[in-house]
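Q: What would this complex look like in 3D?
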Amino acid sequence: MGLDDRKLAVLRAIVEDYVSTQEPVGSKALVERHQLGVSPATVRNDMAVLEEEGYIRQPHTSAGRVPTDRGYRLFVDRLSRVKPLSPAERRAIERFLVGAVDLDDVVHRTVRLLAQLTRQVAVVQYPSLARSSVRHLELVPISTTRLMLVMIADTGRVEQRLVELPGPVPADDVTDLRRLINEKLANARLSETPPLVQALVEEAPPELRPTMTTLATVLLETLVERHEERIALAGTANLTRGGLLDFQGSLRPILEALEEEVVLLKLIGETEPSTTRVLIGDENEFDNLRAASVVSTGYGPGTTIVGGLGVLGPTRMDYPGNIATVRAVARYVGELLAQN
Amino acid sequence: MGLDDRKLAVLRAIVEDYVSTQEPVGSKALVERHQLGVSPATVRNDMAVLEEEGYIRQPHTSAGRVPTDRGYRLFVDRLSRVKPLSPAERRAIERFLVGAVDLDDVVHRTVRLLAQLTRQVAVVQYPSLARSSVRHLELVPISTTRLMLVMIADTGRVEQRLVELPGPVPADDVTDLRRLINEKLANARLSETPPLVQALVEEAPPELRPTMTTLATVLLETLVERHEERIALAGTANLTRGGLLDFQGSLRPILEALEEEVVLLKLIGETEPSTTRVLIGDENEFDNLRAASVVSTGYGPGTTIVGGLGVLGPTRMDYPGNIATVRAVARYVGELLAQN
DNA sequence: GACTGGCACTCGTTACAGTCGAGTGCCAGG
DNA sequence: CCTGGCACTCGACTGTAACGAGTGCCAGTC
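A: Here is my prediction, written as structure tokens for the whole assembly.
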């Protein structure tokens, strides 16, 4: 039941050794590599208890022990301190993010940086539209019956969509429409736009009404309902590290999951509390990812959160290190966004 | 030297069998599954010749034969007809592409469609900026010293970038700048803009000169020099089909290559002639992709080419089928673009 | 009561030998 | 030029044995 300090120390040692060597760890090796101050036999007794409690298990009868998902969970919650970043890592982060010229650039650099530092698969969600505000809406005439609708959000995101108008609209009307739309929607949070868009249609002068109705439909569809979220991914090649031992030999399910934006969003997205989240093994809801762990956190300018980012790797990963890196990168990105 | 018809038929049979079974094919199995009208012994003699000429090889002394890259090449060039698409495939293509609302949407659907139909990794290049023309350039004030520059190309691509101005610029000046820029650049091919941009600066009224200079720099940088190309990727999970036999056991180099946009662009990009291109094994220039083949072609509205698309897979792939699919998808996408 | 050394036991790994069979190359004959 | 026959090669598979890392248990010690 109660795990005394030494048993916890044994668990910690097992996790650390297994993470670094990738091999089941036995009692003898443990006492040699850690100053536990007791004999292998004692450690074996402790291990037996840990196994009974479900924190570790034996792959084969005559093999050493390996942490279970539950063991990693205990390790993360109670046995590890977040590793401070090395100066080299700090420098890498700073160097990597200077010179980013636009949001795309920031996101791409960030995701590559994360992948490189953690040597895992990195995922970065673009600033969520739902948490952005409208900075400006632009209407660009393409032909007499076609407009390009461009929305610029305060987070730097730019969304566009082609609008097929019900009939020809003269240039002056476009100017009027642009003005009306911006007056109503500028600085509004996107999540709060639906009633405003509704009002736009109702308040529009009669001659602009049909066009405005079309625009309103597209606005709601594109900006609120539709694929409003975007994701950047990097470092998939890191999945092949550790031979085929991680992920029980098949990358297939992992790669499939990584192709589904919805899955990634669920994993790293809705980070409601601003704290770092760790999902270990089957704690996540996707069968394909039962052999994987995810470390994620929210980011945004100042204390607000506009999106999530994180890394995905084998359950056998360096949690303290990855947590530290993910947090640090999120903080830097937040600062970068705050400057704009 | 000269390969008579029967030897070619043998090679064709070997390629087809190997592609479908994934196992080295022996002389006996060959005569059973194909009506060659000769005995296994005769086939063996032919095989000996084919091997001597480098078209096939034996993995082990006591195993059947496997095509070499050179063998596939001959097969593709002279022994195969492009497979007609099945009605089901045609329908899939049509169904998949209706309802695309903007360029992003088209590209994403296309790449997923390709991956699904060919069961390979699919790559689609966004319409190249170099081959696009400017439809409109928009300047959106973000603050008094910041502008968002948005370019809309005739291909539907939209690029934006934040511009830090040398000093505050009143709204009227922005209007003037917008007008000047659009007068000069609208409908210009992007590859031909540099002299025009230069002229813009020289012809700008003195009070707008510094701002215009800044804008010109950003314009050239973003639209012409910088990462002007974009790529969409799908179906990486397909790499794991065929166990670990393809790609000699390690996906690592392939995954690494797929993360490099530059590599992908070289593979499927510059399709100068509008014909379909097939790169087999080490015919491509990247060591990481020596075990892979690429089938690619250009696409664009009408007969012009604005970008490339294709699939990547093991050298042991269904060339006739993939070539047919890639062509068909490219044609459909071209038609779709032509409508806009 | 907690820890330790010793010991028997388990079981995966490795090495080796032997068999099997698919596939080949070669050759003599049609 | 093609064919049937035959000896040969060599990887795949199987079974056996030795090895050793690691364990659980127990009796003894502090």
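A: To summarize the key features: Residues 24, 26-29, 40-41, 44-45, 47-48, 58, 60-65 of chain A lie near DNA strand D (CB under 10 Å from a C1'). Strands of chain A lie at 56-57, 66-67, 121-125, 134-143, 146-153, 158-164, 231-234, 277-279, 292-299, 307-314.
Q: Very helpful, thank you.
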